[in-house]
Amino acid sequence: MRFDPWMLLDYWELLLQGTWLTIRITVMALVLGYLLGIGVALLGMARSRTLRAIAGTYVEVLRNIPFIIILFLVYYGLPFSGVRMPALFAGTLALSLFVSAYYSEIVRAAILALPRGQFESARAIGMSPAQAMWNVVAPQVLRTIIPPSTNMTLTMMKESAVLSSITVPELTYQGLVIQGNTFAPFEVFAAITLIYWMIAIVIAETSRRLEARVGLAQRQSVTRNPIADRYLSLERRPAR
Amino acid sequence: MTATLALKVEGLTKQFRGTTALDSVYLEIQPGEIVALIGPSGCGKSTFLRCLTWLEQPDDGFIEVAGQPFGRERIGAVVRRQSGREIDRIRPRIGLVFQQLNLWPHLTALENIVRPQIVVLKRPREEATRRARDLLARLGLADRAERYPHSLSGGQKQRVAIARALAMDPALMLFDEPTSALDPELVGEVLAVLRQLAEAGTTMLVVTHEIGFAANVADRIAFMDHGRIVEEGPARQLIDAPRDPRLKGFLDLVLSHRDGPAPPLA
């Protein structure tokens, strides 16, 4: 047996289609998951105990079952209650649900970490809760949520490989197809490893730039203490 | 006295799980008047300010700001609770300067003052900016407009917080312990600013430990203990000849502390 990666060139179209679909699924789940996540996070901080309980249950359930079970519940389970949808749709929805539970915890933690006085000073001056959130809380939270959200997005992107089990033709599924044709699992999955790795690099780099931009716009964060700053900074200090 | 009161508080009561934080507080403030609210810590001063801005909902009682009912209103014999929107509309009439200031660190000093005018009062940006620059200049911060709060000194931050509240054209300014969050050497600076505001005719209610400020700048002093205003009167008279034994005890404590040897450095 010999290692012959060049034969994959015959299948470049399938690999490209799979890669493109994985990227689209990831972006869709990121957007949908974040919208859901923000909603659940706000629900989790509502005044009503019932609403808080609903948000808490949502997060608990989704975080404590394996992703593949969420996927099967949505794809095979929902049709029993009369909701039938194509595999791609069901898969993206399941991925969004899965990741939204984690996003909501990230958002909630970031909001709770903000001193309460920030929101209160906005309210006391006459802003509505929504205006206070938009003008005062959100811009400050934006920066703290980027690093943990990036980690979660990477996990979610990798988890999208599980959609191959319900025949969504994303990257892993295409890999399985090629492998079936060529009986060359090592070459195929080595190539797929590389592609996933490159997608991950793009996500991490995008997040890094985003973080730098947000950081630039708001200069220093609230929590930076000038004394700590002086001792932690790598800039050269004038000699005594 | 026919002028509308800047603030009229009647029977304000607030309980926290059984303990009474405010016990039927009555207070009236004339426009242009400066009232100092003093009292031992935990007596309900901060709760009072939080109830006046409806950050905490009082259980009972009425607040009127420049003749406008705030939070609850009486229509004949019926008491009606105002909606959140109505409350938000009256809130800018009361400028609150928090003890911790709570400037918004992601906005420049100027934008801290401009943003609420645009969002709450719907002022055009140019007008809001003009107003903000004017206030900053008046408070000696004209050259600090573009700075972010973290690069301002404690006293400068406080003046930005004051300008932010003043820009809303409040009928009344509330100060929560304006000197306590600052380094001791900045206390004089803040007191000077308050005095400047007083000369400009700003109506103020100042919660303070600075008996000196209360005696020199305030027209009237109200002494609070256990959630009640126990004694109130012209500043000098109240300090020189306190009637209530609790006020006497409090003044003895504060004044002896002030005249005694300097406390050890913390």
From TrEMBL, chain A:
Membrane topology recorded in Swiss-Prot or TrEMBL: Multi-pass membrane protein
Domain of life per record: Bacteria
TM region positions: 20-46, 58-78, 183-204
Subcellular location: Cell inner membrane; Cell membrane
Primary location group: membrane
UniProt cross-references to PROSITE patterns, sorted A to Z: ABC_TM1
Residue ranges the record marks as coiled coil: none
InterPro entries the UniProt entry points to: AA_ABC_transptr_permease_3TM, ArtM/GltK/GlnP/TcyL/YhdX-like, MetI-like, MetI-like_sf
Keyword tRNA-binding: no
Keywords from the named record: Amino-acid transport, Cell membrane, Membrane, Transmembrane, Transmembrane helix, Transport
ABC transmembrane type-1 domain span: 19-207
Keyword Membrane appears in the UniProt entry: yes
NCBIfam families hit by this protein: HEQRo_perm_3TM
Task performed by this protein: Part of the binding-protein-dependent transport system for glutamine; probably responsible for the translocation of the substrate across the membrane.
Family the UniProt entry places it in: Belongs to the binding-protein-dependent transport system permease family. HisMQ subfamily.
UniProt protein name: Amino acid ABC transporter permease
Upper taxonomic lineage: Bacteria, Pseudomonadati, Pseudomonadota, Alphaproteobacteria, Hyphomicrobiales
UniProtKB/TrEMBL annotation, chain B:
Keywords from the named record: Amino-acid transport, ATP-binding, Cell membrane, Membrane, Nucleotide-binding, Transport
InterPro entries: AAA+_ATPase, ABC_ATPase_HisP-typ, ABC_transporter-like_ATP-bd, ABC_transporter-like_CS, MetN_ABC_transporter-like, P-loop_NTPase
Positions of the ABC transporter domain: 7-251
SMART domains, sorted: AAA
Chief site of localization: membrane
Compartment(s) of residence: Cell membrane
One MF annotation (Gene Ontology) recorded for this entry: ATP binding
Keyword Transport in annotation: yes
Membrane topology: Peripheral membrane protein
Pfam families: ABC_tran
PROSITE patterns hit by this protein: ABC_TRANSPORTER_1 (PS00211), ABC_TRANSPORTER_2 (PS50893)
TM annotation in the entry: none
Family of this protein: Belongs to the ABC transporter superfamily.
Protein name: Amino acid ABC transporter ATP-binding protein
